[in-house]
Amino acid sequence: MDTSHLAEHAGTAGTLFASIFVVATTTMRTMIPLRIFGILANVVLFLTAIPAHNYLVMLVQSVMCFVNSYRLHQMLQLVRDVKKSVNSDLSMDWLQPFMKRRKYKKGTVLFRKGDRALEMFYTTCGD
User: How far apart are CA 111 and CA 12, in angstroms?
Assistant: First the structure.
């Protein structure tokens, strides 16, 4: 049996398999599954380029696998940070050094809808 013919069929099957991953990424609504499927597609496309000695495809897929892996890491870190912040103290005390205490009379308008934001207000009481 001719091994080049077998390698050609394996390459075609692998490309078809990777294409399924690429099509699946278009249906993803969230970034984490999108990156995982992207990495899987990169790996399969890299592997299918080996028998044909297609070094350009191997290079591109290696770079894209690195980019997808890095972005996946960033997304997982963001999810961890958000979970950590939700479970932590929500105190605003850390802002104290950057604040100035001001008192306003009842009925004073601080800003109106559509005003350009030039400062941030932290209201501690209001009657």
Answer: 64
Instruction: State residue 8's pLDDT score.
Output: 67
Question: Greatest CA span in the chain, whole angstroms?
Answer: 92
Quick one: pLDDT at residue 126? Answer: 64
- Collect all residues with Cβ–Cβ distance below 8 Å to 34 and sequence separation of at least 6: 25, 28
Buried b (16+ CB within 10 A) or exposed e, 19-44: eebeeebeeeeebeebbbbbbbbbbb
Predicted local confidence at residue 60, as pLDDT:
94
Query: Which residues of the chain are modeled with pLDDT < 50?
Result: none
Terminal CA-CA length for the chain: 89
